[in-house]
Write a structure and sequence with these properties.
With 89 residues, the protein is α+β, with helices and mostly antiparallel strands. It folds into two domains: 1-54, Roll (SH3 type barrels); 55-89, no CATH class. Helix content is 21%, strand content 30%. It contains one helix and four strands, in the order ββββα. The chain has one helix at residues 69-87, and strands at residues 3-5, 17-26, 29-36, 40-45. A four-stranded antiparallel beta sheet has the order 1-2-3-4, with no helix packed on it. Strand 3 and strand 4 (40-45) form a beta hairpin. The longest helix has 19 residues, at 69-87. The chain starts with a strand and ends with a helix.
Length: 89
Amino acid sequence: MGWATITHPFHPLRGQRFGVLKTRRSGGLEILILRHAERGSYAIARDWTDWSLSEPIPRPDGCLSQLALETLGELTELVSELAVRHADP
């Protein structure tokens, strides 16, 4: 099926290239089954490799499957504010 390079910044095998044995979906995520010469086969999220899609995948309801970093920051601020309001009697 080709080759995939691990690109996730914190993965211990980052930058290494492995043969792709197959793909599958699990829990809504696309998974690659890679072949490691010493460890055998193992699964990794497609998004953690150079096979990741550059654009978010639209869900059937029209929403995007990924949130922008700015949106996540706004959500964090909102949750913090609500937690403070909830803590005040």
